Amino acid sequence: MIRLIDISGSFLGLLIFAPLLLALWIIGWFKMQSPLFRQERMGRHHQSFLLVKFRTMPMDTPSVASHLASGVSINHYGSILRKTKLDELPQLWNVLKGDMSLVGPRPNLFNQEELICARDALDVYSVRPGITGLAQIKDIDMSTPKLLSETDAEMISTLSIANYFKYIFLTIAGKGQGDRVRR
To answer: Tell me: the pLDDT tens digits for 121-170?
Structure first.
């Protein structure tokens, strides 16, 4: 059932937001010279996939978790994308392809060993990663691996259709700040 909702929601989202996606792609081209950011992430059952987002940092920024990136790397345009969560819209493609779900644990990098161990212990990789979830609306990011893993496991064990839509609604309503960056 959740997968059917993911497919329908991501397809409709891509269709409805197509003009906005195009506008942000064009603006991103002029501001960043490469509007899309692609990064290998760990998905369900440790499977690798290519996450797609709008770029919020220059192309030469080191590929590290957001909480380890320097805040000075984010320009004004990137800051707006992050605050409004518009940088996440291209991930609807990841959801449509089946790499991700609209709701699930945020996908991590393969080099985040502490987080991977904590998530493995709680079987978090048994589900598809998501664009949003309980940790995101509670402002818990990857800088606290144990807490994040516990929150992800709680979300997985209590996920219902009602909670699924609740997390999406709260994200759209502006709950949660997204991944922190170092200042």
So the answer is: 999 999 999 999 999 999 999 999 999 999 999 999 999 999 999 999 99
Interatomic CA distance for residues 78 and 144, integer angstroms: 24
d(Cα 60, Cα 90) in Å, to the nearest integer? 21
Measured from the Cβ of residue 153, the count of other Cβ atoms closer than 10 Å reads 19
Task: Give the Cα separation of 45 and 76 in Å (integer).
Answer: 37
Burial of 6 (0-12, 13-18, 19+ CB in 10 A): buried
* Cβ–Cβ < 8 Å for 149, 121: yes
Region of residue 9 (left: phi > 0; alpha: psi -120 to 50; beta: else)? alpha
Q: Give CA–CA dist 81/89, Å, rounded.
A: 10
Asked if 20 contacts 89 with a C-beta cutoff of 8 angstroms, the reply is: yes
Distance (Å, rounded) from C-alpha 119 to C-alpha 25? 34
Instruction: Please check the confidence at residue 182 and state whether its pLDDT lies above 80.
Output: no
State how far the Cα of 138 lies from the Cα of 101, in Å rounded to an integer. 19
Query: Which 3 state secondary structure label does DSSP give 44?
Result: helix
The Cα–Cα gap between 78 and 108 comes to: 20
pLDDT, tens digit (0-9, with 9 covering 90-100), for 6-36: 999 999 999 999 999 999 999 999 988 889 9
